[in-house]
Here is the input.
Amino acid sequence: MDLPFIADKTFESKDYTSNYLPKAEYDNCTFINCDFSSSYLSMISFLECEFIDCNFSLTKTKETAFKDAVFNNCKLLGVSFNDCSPFLFSVSFNDCILNLSSFFDMKMKRSIFKKCKLEQTDFSNADLAQSVFDECDLNQTIFDGSILEKVDFTTSKNIAINPEVNRIKHARFSKENALGLLSYYNIVIM
Here is the structure.
């Protein structure tokens, strides 16, 4: 399907909850204070786009393409990123709320999560090698069969990762959050 091409535009304070964003390829566009909650972004492509102060809660992302997309101070509750197009999928998040979202089975090496809340977010079977979780809250975040090699968790909190079912070689943890690697053994540390 050939989609219209929209480049270098800024969209500010738009409500896409009932009038959905038109299907197109958006290149180097900026979305500021836009509401995409519960909308359909299916089959839309975002290349090198930035989203600032936007709400994506419960947005449908079937075959949505995010390539070098940056999210700043966005709310992304319950977003199924695993429905997105996997081709060249690349995202970074700064000061975002991603609670209850899913990255199941996603290939997302070198991803950046900075000052994000990721409570109950699902990273099962995801390849996060060389990613950074900087000052993130990972309360009840799910890592199961995940590739976490060389991931930097040193400044994050509430980490619980089972080292027997995840690949964690050369992952970095602080002394405090390394205890989260032992939580699956039901041992008491004094």
Notes: The chain has a mean pLDDT of 94. The two ends are 60 Å apart (CA to CA).
